[in-house]
Design goal:
260 residues, mainly beta, 13-stranded mixed β-sheet, two-stranded parallel sheet, 4 helices, binds N-[(4-methoxyphenyl)methyl]2,5-thiophenedesulfonamide, binds zinc ion
């Protein structure tokens, strides 16, 4: 369909043609309505053990900018909360808009944030590889963090300073010694629900943990993400990477739980 014309980006509303699960029963993102979320006293706090994490590289995959980690052992994991065992950190990436009032994937009572950071983890206790976990109902745990605009974020410059190196789709460069702990808000209070990847292949394999409190970054810092391109160096068309967020999907009876 025209919505998937090779030169144009394939829009979310057309994804169902190639990925019928796009109309599935546990798709992400969703609109989170705080007072409709059920406080669950059995939900413990989430624990992030990122102290020995090993970042490897930063790349532009044509959808977002991605920082990948060494996930060959349990050196950096998320556990607790809704998770039955530790999940290994594999990568983090961002979603953002073309202006500050939209860009996040999850919304809160219909309101968008300027951007959303996703830290992707996989269940290496139950599954042998990330790809196997990515197709299992409890295979992935993605920690979502909202980005609000305001003052400069004191550590985000380590990422935004590297973005010029990965301007084009398919570019990649070393990115060592980055600990994502510096991108966390002060509170780890969260909402959690069962969902999916928000980009194709849209696998319904994600336990979502969305932090209630946003971090603050400046418009200037966010603007640097918008100088990335969806297109490769060899392509004649230059499409700026922005609005790489999927809109909220039907809840279809799912329950959103809230930590205390
Ligand atoms: C088996 O083949 C596969 C398996 C898995 C993927 C995507 N995996 S991924 O971690 O890059 C993510 C994509 C979107 C993410 S979001 N916005 O929901 O956090 S995470 C691709 C091919
Ligand atoms: Zn994402």
């Amino acid at each position: 369909s025209i919505l998937c014309f090779p030169r144009l980006k394939c829009s979310p509303s057309a994804w169902h043609n190639k990925y019928p699960v796009a109309h599935g029963s546990r798709q992400s993102p969703i609109d989170i309505v705080p007072h409709q979320a059920s406080r669950d006293p059995n939900l413990s706090q989430i624990v992030l053990n990122y102290d020995r994490c090993t970042s490897i590289n930063i790349s532009n995959n044509g959808h977002s900018v991605v920082v990948e980690f060494d996930d060959t052992d349990d050196r950096s994991v998320i556990q607790g909360g809704p998770l039955d065992n530790p999940y290994r950190l594999k990568q983090f990436h961002f979603h953002w808009g073309e202006k500050g009032c939209e860009g996040s994937e999850h919304t809160v009572s219909g309101n968008s944030y300027a951007s959303e950071l996703h830290l992707v983890h996989w269940n290496a206790v139950k599954y042998k590889t990330f790809d196997e976990a990515a197709t299992a109902p409890d295979g992935l745990a993605v920690l979502g963090i909202f980005l609000d605009t305001g003052d400069d974020h004191r550590w985000l410059h380590t990422i935004t300073d590297a973005l010029y190196m990965v301007k084009f789709k398919g570019s990649i460069t070393d990115f060592k010694d980055f600990n994502p702990k510096c991108l966390l808000p002060s509170s780890l209070h969260y909402w959690t629900y069962l969902g999916s990847l928000t980009t194709p292949p849209l696998h319904e394999s994600v336990i979502w943990i969305v932090l209630k409190d946003p971090i603050t970054v400046s418009e200037k810092q966010l603007g640097k993400f918008r100088m990335l391109l969806f297109t490769g160096e060899e392509e004649d068309q230059r499409l700026r990477m922005e609005n790489n967020f999927r809109p909220p999907q039907p809840l279809k009876g799912r329950k959103v739980r809230s930590s205390n």
